[in-house]
Amino acid sequence: MNMRDLVYRLYARRVRGRLDHAQVPKHIGLILDGNRRWARASGGTTAQGHRAGAEKIEEFLGWCAETDVEVVTLWMLSTDNFDRPESELVPLLGIIEDSVRALAADGRWRVHHVGALDILPDNTRTTLKEAEAATSDNTGILVNVAVGYGGRQEIADAVRSLLHDAARKGTSFEELAEAVDIDLISEHLYTRGQPDPDLVIRTSGEQRLSGFMLWQSAHSEYYFCEVFWPAFRKVDFLRAMRDYAARHRRYGG
């Protein structure tokens, strides 16, 4: 172990030792950004960047498990990503499928897809459904894999689902108009039944949500990190947790 690694480990241990587990977010939303820029900076290909980013996920979930996080939502592919060239999109979908299969094979996590299934290729849809079924009885962290996800699309799908549900029940438009409220719409979101994210982390230095969990993140804390996602370290995670705890204490007391 070189001196730099030793100093890093000692610093991470110090940050972890000062972390208040009573102030840990129960649900973390994660925007995994910077794979392509990391690849360019490293002299690699775009596919290598996406692969490195996918490999970081298991490590991140391990850190979450150590700090009692209960739900993690990973934004792996947005609806906007379908505008990318096929030469990039097809390998990316394959990497996502491999990552989802690895999450299911791990045996600790409960995998749940959030997003529009109908826009995904058959192989991706099948992989997501099989992973969800295979992990439904697991007791570890609930891992939402946001693939083919867009915040506006989610709200539109929720309203569409609400209308279909009302039609099946024979509810009139007048009755529905009276019944619609925040809770009713929430019951038709992709994340229905789950707590909203307490903390949203975005890597790579971009300071915007880009439509991520628009409805659910109304009261979330945001943490923007300069590091590209494949280079995200445990100390970066612990800093985000420490920052969240400090804000939580300040606003709560």
TrEMBL record:
Coiled coil: none annotated. Substrate binds at residues 34-38, 50, 78-80, 82, 84, 202, 208-210. The keyword Acetylation does not apply. Its cofactor is Mg(2+). SUPFAM superfamilies: Undecaprenyl diphosphate synthase. The keyword Isomerase does not apply. CDD domains: Cis_IPPS. The active site is at residues 33, 81. Binds 2 magnesium ions per subunit. Mg(2+) binds at residues 33, 221. Keywords: Magnesium, Metal-binding, Transferase. It is an enzyme of class 2 (transferase). One of its GO terms (molecular function) is transferase activity. InterPro entries: UPP_synth-like, UPP_synth-like_CS, UPP_synth-like_sf. Pfam families: Prenyltransf. Its EC number is 2.5.1.-. Gene3D superfamilies: Decaprenyl diphosphate synthase-like. Belongs to the UPP synthase family. Z-FPP synthase subfamily. Catalyzes the condensation of isopentenyl diphosphate (IPP) with allylic pyrophosphates generating different type of terpenoids. HAMAP family: ISPT. Homodimer. This is Isoprenyl transferase. It comes from Streptomyces evansiae.
